[in-house]
Write a structure and sequence with these properties.
This protein has about 160 residues and is of the alpha+beta class. The chain has one domain: minor pseudopilin epsh fold. Helix content is about 30%, strand content about 30%. The strands form two sheets. Strands 1, 2, 3, 4 and 6 form a five-stranded antiparallel sheet that branches. A four-stranded antiparallel sheet has the order 5-7-8-9, covered by helices on one side.
């Protein structure tokens, strides 16, 4: 009887370890999803506190946060050489992209009031950051022109 209980206990431990490792991509995606939302909020806050523009750009296996400045007052904001760009590398199997609702590639740039601006001078549009895992799960973070964020979990579409 003791041997049977010990065997069941060992099998349970092995199954728990196997299930935990199988769910790793979704845990990584969830962590990236939460971190991206926090970093977008932080960039917006830093823009208002520092009186500068901050840009968040997604690029596949990483995203970056850069502080910008306009030295000559022409309205064109360039990366601040005194501020090192922060690059957030993503775990294997997770990618992130950013674009408009129409599918165009965009970055989120916050001005000193914490609202989105269009670097080209046009009307700011909603910027959608999409994080995907290799398992097919998707998470979205939308940044509205007002600077507000909306995070959502997208249900997987079955074929």
């Amino acid at each position: 009887m003791i041997e049977l209980v010990a065997t069941f206990g060992l099998v349970a431990i092995l199954l728990a370890a196997a299930v935990w490792s199988l769910d790793r991509p979704s845990m990584d995606l969830e962590r990236v999803f939460q971190r991206l939302g926090s970093d977008l909020r932080e960039a917006r806050m830093e823009a208002t506190l520092r009186g500068a523009h901050f840009r968040v750009t997604a690029a596949g296996s990483a995203y970056s946060i850069a502080r910008l400045r306009d030295d000559d007052g022409d309205g064109i904001w360039q990366p601040d050489p005194n501020y090192s760009e922060r690059v957030m590398s993503l775990p294997p199997g997770v990618e992130v992209s950013a674009g408009g609702e129409d599918g165009s590639a965009l970055a989120a740039e916050f001005d000193s009031r914490g609202v989105l601006v269009d670097p080209a001078g046009g009307e700011p549009r909603v910027v959608v950051f999409v994080a995907r895992s290799s398992a097919g799960a998707t998470r979205k973070v939308s940044v509205w022109p007002s600077g507000q964020l909306r995070q959502e979990r997208v249900a997987a579409v079955s074929p």
